Amino acid sequence: MSSCCFSFTASRNRCYRNSFSSAGLKSTTTDLGHGTLMHCWVPKSHNQSKPSLLLIHGFGANAMWQWNHFLPSLTPRFNVYVPDLLFFGDSFTTRPERSESFQARCLMGLMEAHGVSKMSAAGLSYGGFVLYSMAAQFPERIEKVVLCCAGVCVEEKDVDGGISKLKSVDEAVSLLIPQNPQKMKELVRLTFVKPIKLLPSCFLNDFIRVMCSNRIQRKELLEALIKGRKLSDLPKISQPTLIIWGEQDQLFPLELAHRLKSHVGENAELVVIKNAGHALNVEKPKEMAKNINSFLINPTALSKQENQSNGSKVD
Fold first, then answer.
1. Is 272 helix (H, G, I), strand (E, B) or coil?
2. DSSP SS3 for 246
3. What is the pTM of this model?
4. Distance, CA of 84 to CA of 63 (rounded, Å)
5. Among 20, 177, 242, 248, fewest CB within 10 Å belongs to which?
6. C-beta separation of 268 from 260 below 8 A
């Protein structure tokens, strides 16, 4: 195994902490009881004149890595809250529940603990599954929903030889919770349109060591998410919903975006970002941020914004 004395991942974590602090956020840990602790970046000073926005990360790195580039455009307009989901970052539970609905209830408990009663929210990939569950369980508290490359309408049969490049739950586990550099490189190839070619094994091993902990629990999260999943069991949400998708997403193909828009119905808008895959927040952060802001602040400006970027609205 290749190794490096210097930990790029730990160093990057420190840079992101400084970035979050400079953006007006502070690190907090909340005890929800029953063995459940949740870490969250919250405003140093909550501004009552601004709406609240919850940003929910996906699988992979912690919340800081996935949302850092969005803070400059969002914190001036919103009270931004960026939690680590259970078994990511510094959030953990001793309870046995692994469903996205449990994650959703814990997030709502976290927001209640911070005195936030109403909010809009954006969810990346797995975070979108959790957000969808929040919107369904707490319709009076979630005002607007942004789902980014979140295959909420996927069914188990889609993974088991269906439309997804992942052909089984076990394959999903091995790729989404990589344990060696080769699997990490496969994940990068699957999620990026233009994958980074030079990825030294020492860097990848360092990233896996720091970021890919709680493997057993994360495996259980994926199993709870996929096994037995049917579209017919998925409730419909009523909130205004923006669906953002990478045109070349291989993990959750574009077909799932159209399926989700059809399922939600007239309250949903779909924006497809060209030359982007599943790692939309990394490949096209500016386009993604512009669409999120336009939708949350001034929905009527969304169509105009799309015409000025490389995203396209789909009716």
1. strand
2. strand
3. 0.93
4. 6
5. 248
6. yes
